[in-house]
Amino acid sequence: MEFSWLETRWARPFYLAFVFCLALGLLQAIKLYLRRQRLLRDLRPFPTPPTHWFFGHQKFIQDDNMEKLEEIIEKYPRAFPLWIGPFQAFFYICDPDYAKTVLNRTDPKSQYVQKFLSPLIGKGLVALDGPKWFQHRRLLTPAFHFNILKAYIEVMTHSVKTMLDKWEKVCSTRDTTVEVYKHINLMSLDIIMKCTFSKETNCQTNSTHDPYEKAIFEVSRIVFQRLYSFLHHSDIIFKLSPQGHRFQKLNQVLYQYTDTIIQDRKKSLQTGVKQDNTQKRKYQDFLDIVLSAKDENGSSFSDTDVHSEVSTFLLAGHDSVAASISWVLYCLAQNPEHQERCREEVRGILGDGSSITWDQLGEMSYTTMCINETFRLIPAVPSISRDLSKPLTFPDGCTLPAGITVVLSIWGLHHNPAVWKNPKVFDPLRFSKENSDQRHPYAYLPFSAGSRNCIGQHFAIIECKVAVALTLLRFELASDHSRPPQLVRRVVLKSNNGVHIGRGKGNR
Ligand code: HEM
């Protein structure tokens, strides 16, 4: 009798390997099936926008269709699940009471977002959780003390003026329209480098910093696409994909940029040679604080911790501010009557704007209302997310079990017609004292709220006020209808084609 080929000695290992892989595949399939069933059961009480059984809402999310999101929010003004493929769902909330419930807890940041972002910013303050987060937050908070922020106003004024000089040149030699975002981004990078790292890079005039900025833009796109493409949630699949390769290359650019900042400071500390502006400083900058920080056992931050915090503050400290300032200028260009009121106010307070003080910034009430209204209409950070560590009950009695990823859609909250009357209309008076007093404290959250609110919010607001005030003194802004911005949802809300603003006819 003949032996079957499977029984020959050489075939056995292949046979066993095949059976092993099959069993693994089967186990994985059962796990995924059970996961889907569990999610379907947990999310059943919440109505879901129409979905495809396999792709879920992936296509809609990837399309960056903000109008569609607004339609969904109109229909589901409290919360709704969005499916990312067949086995993953995020629970979106856009209601102030729901937001309050989530932000008053201490659930960790969503593992997906953090995992995909961690090659970019490491485990810095944005990504940390638990006691280590508390320790870092306590140690880093003094870097944003009001007395330090006051000293930054002069630095900011100088950087904004450099940018406006560049705009003057562009407008005098070419057409009267400027793509402002890329200029503002470099200006914002210049400011964060000078304020938090006391580093003079001249990045606004020296184009060697462009690779860092370009890398940030592309990496954010890849992170976001990965987040909403369930196949790329697997590290192996992502790493083998062309996007994964590109991601690794870009990360090296970002890593190197941050490393140079740290090494330069360490060198100057070792050799005792102080940089020009270090000598002039009357305060410890952010880098001083990080490098000298000690935990309760007296140990310093590890090299990895230092790198993570520097890359976190470098990115968080300029990317979102740059987007916000460009959106404020865009909204003022779209609304000339509000623009003019702001200009009159700024002129009355600053005169020719040769210097700006802390108190003067506090007097700009109408300009502040316009800034707040822009932060509502186009929030630079459109959403934040948490993984529930224990079951959660909302004030209306609806519950979610532990393990669900909750996404607080700041965009959704700020565009919710159940919360804001005519949410698409730019109306700064929503932020007048009388109108603000009546508002739910969790209806407006551009910087989030609770213990994990934005540590740099006052820094951001000051920078925004300085930039807007000085721009209005020198430029009349007009909208460029031929190139409207194309909003793209990334970690930070940006325009894919930049923000084009024209120079109005008035001569400033
Ligand atoms: C207009 C500009 C800005 C906006 C809209 C913004 C928005 C936010 C939001 C919504 C959060 C909460 C994130 C979450 O819970 O997942 C946050 C956290 C944070 N922001 Fe900002 N931010 C801005 C500017 C800045 C600046 C200038 C810095 C630093 C200089 C900064 C540093 C941080 C850090 C480190 C955190 C994490 C805080 C923690 O978890 O303890 N941000 N920001």
The level-1 CATH class of the largest domain:
Mainly Alpha
Q: What coarse outline follows from CA principal-axis ratios?
A: globular
- Tell me the total number of β-strands: 11
* Strand residue percentage: 5-15%
Our measurement of the CA-to-CA distance between the termini, rounded to an integer number of angstroms, reads 101 Å
Q: How would a crystallographer describe the biggest sheet?
A: 4 strands, mixed
CATH architectural category of the largest domain? Orthogonal Bundle
Round the Cα radius of gyration to an integer and report it: 25 Å
Quick one: CATH superfamily of the largest domain? Cytochrome P450
Helix residue percentage:
55-70%
Q: Calculate the mean pLDDT score and round it.
A: 89
Across the major sheet, the strand order is 1-2-7-4
Q: Tally the helices: what do you get? A: 21
Secondary structure blueprint with pairings:
Blueprint: H1 12-43, H2 58-62, H3 66-75, E1 79-83, E2 89-93, H4 96-103, H5 111-121, H6 130-140, H7 146-173, E3 177-179, H8 180-197, H9 210-227, H10 235-240, H11 242-271, H12 276-280, H13 286-292, H14 303-316, H15 319-334, H16 336-350, H17 358-363, H18 365-377, E4 383-387, E5 392-393, E6 399-400, E7 405-409, H19 410-414, H20 433-437, H21 457-474, E8 477-479, E9 487-488, E10 494-495, E11 500-503
Parallel strand pairs: 2-7
Antiparallel strand pairs: 1-2, 3-11, 4-7, 5-6, 8-11, 9-10
Helix pairs in contact: 5-9, 7-8, 7-21, 8-15, 9-11, 11-14, 15-18, 15-21, 16-18, 16-21
The structure holds protoporphyrin IX containing FE (HEM).
Protoporphyrin IX containing FE binds near residues 137, 316 and 455.
